[in-house]
Design goal:
The chain has 155 residues and is of the alpha+beta class. The chain has helices at residues 11-33, 38-51, 138-154, and strands at 3-7, 59-63, 67-72, 76-81, 85-93, 102-107, 110-114, 118-125, 130-134. Strands 5-8-9-7-6 form a five-stranded mixed sheet, with helices on one face.
Length: 155
C-alpha cells in the first residue's frame, strides 16, 4: 500500500496570512515611493519576502516503500525511514497542543506535523523519537505505516 495526502491549515489562517502578505506588500510599495533611508525600505520588503511562502502553504504526507516523508512546499522535507519505526498508534492532535501549525520540533527527539485539529498518527521510532502526524484519514496512515514498517523489518 502507498499513502499520500495533502494537509492544509484552516481557511481562516489561510485568509489571515493572505491579508498579512497584502499589508506587507502595500507597506513595501509605499516605503519605496517615499524618500528615506534604504533600511526603511528594506524592512517592509523583507516582510513581504518572509510572508509570501506562507500564503497557500500546504503540507504533504507520503509513505512509500522506504520512508515516511513530510514536506511543506519545496523548502521543507523531513524523512523517517520505515526501518526506524517501532510502533504506530491512532490518536488525536491539535496544532495548539504543539505550539502552532506545521512542523514543530518539540525537543527530546519529539516532533509534530499538524495543520488542523483531528485524528493523527503517533509514530514511535528508534532512539526514543516520537512523531505526531495529523491527517484527515489518520487511521489509513496508521494502517499503511504498520504494514510498511513490518515489511521493511522483514527485508
Amino acid at each position: 500500500m502507498h499513502y499520500e495526502t495533502t494537509v492544509a491549515p484552516p481557511r481562516w489562517l489561510d485568509r489571515l496570512l493572505f491579508v498579512l502578505f497584502v499589508a506587507c506588500l502595500v507597506g513595501a510599495v509605499f516605503a519605496w515611493l517615499e524618500e528615506g533611508p534604504v533600511w526603511a525600505k528594506l524592512i517592509p520588503t523583507a516582510a513581504v519576502l518572509m510572508t509570501l511562502p506562507l500564503v497557500g502553504a500546504r503540507g504533504r504526507i507520503t509513505v512509500d516503500d522506504h520512508a515516511l516523508t513530510l514536506a511543506v512546499g519545496p523548502w521543507f522535507r523531513k524523512r523517517l525511514p520505515l526501518v526506524e519505526i517501532t510502533s504506530v498508534e491512532l490518536t488525536r492532535a491539535a496544532p495548539m497542543d504543539f505550539g502552532g501549525f506545521g512542523y514543530r520540533p518539540l525537543g527530546g527527539g519529539a516532533a509534530a506535523f499538524v495543520f488542523a485539529a483531528g485524528p493523527a498518527a503517533k509514530v514511535h521510532a528508534t532512539e526514543g523519537r516520537l512523531l505526531v502526524v495529523g491527517a484527515p484519514d489518520a487511521d489509513r496512515l496508521v494502517e499503511v505505516l504498520r504494514e510498511r514498517a513490518t515489511a521493511a523489518e522483514d527485508v
